[in-house]
Write a structure and sequence with these properties.
Helices cover 77% and strands 0% of the residues. It is mostly helical.
Length: 219
């Protein structure tokens, strides 16, 4: 029962913060270089490549967040097999083809000094690894491993939300050095999310193999 409640609360939280992120992202639709996060990146906003990757990331990441919400319900899988596969592909392609390359470039110019840069690059590497591993395991019919790595992949995806929660709750300009706080926040978000993912994995109910077989036969 506790794990079910945690899952429900997590879904509600992700949905709420995804909506809030949509509001934040909307400020960039005018392509103004002096709004929001870009005000702290004036050294690189003149770089067209950095700006291109920035816009690619912020306008596509919301699809990763929303797509992941539907992918961990056994009931959703059994009742909506084709939709589950379609959404899963959108999630995987979005991460591996669009966001991993974009975030790698953005990570090289991250705030937070070397602490922030190494944190973001590590996130990007394990994000790609977890997502690719999930794909390879499902192709081999290893449903349990697939589900575990999808949970880990999504945990990295929602670090964007955890990062903003920590920043909004704890950052005070007159108390903390911005660069140090930013770098530590990158690592804290990753550690917190992977810890929650590990807890969920340890307590999850694995989708029965017969369900997967039925799923494969209906391709």
């Amino acid at each position: 029962m506790p794990i079910k409640i945690i899952r429900i609360l997590a879904v509600i939280a992700v949905l709420i913060f995804s909506i809030l992120m949509l509001k934040t992202i909307s400020q960039y639709t005018g392509f103004d270089k002096n709004v929001g996060f870009l005000m702290f990146k004036q050294k690189v906003v003149s770089n067209p490549y950095w700006m291109a990757f920035f816009y690619i990331h912020i306008f596509s990441i919301i699809l990763c967040l929303l797509a992941g919400l539907t992918q961990f319900s056994s009931r959703f899988l059994t009742e909506n097999k084709k939709l589950h596969r379609l959404i899963g592909r959108v999630y995987v392609y979005n991460i591996l083809i669009i966001n991993v390359p974009a975030c790698f470039v953005l990570g090289l110019f991250s705030n937070g000094g070397m602490l922030g840069i190494t944190g973001f690059l590590l996130q990007d590497i394990i994000w790609a690894y977890f997502t690719l591993a999930a794909v390879l395991f499902i192709k081999k019919g290893k449903v349990s491993e697939h589900k575990k790595y999808m949970i880990l992949s999504y945990a990295v995806t929602v670090t964007a939300i955890t990062f903003r929660i920590i920043k909004n709750l704890f950052y005070q300009e007159n108390l903390y050095d911005y660069e140090l706080f930013y770098g530590l926040n990158v690592w804290a978000s990753l550690i917190i999310n992977l810890s929650v993912a590990y807890f969920i994995i340890r307590n999850q109910k694995v989708l029965p193999f017969k369900t997967y077989v039925h799923h494969k036969n209906n391709k």
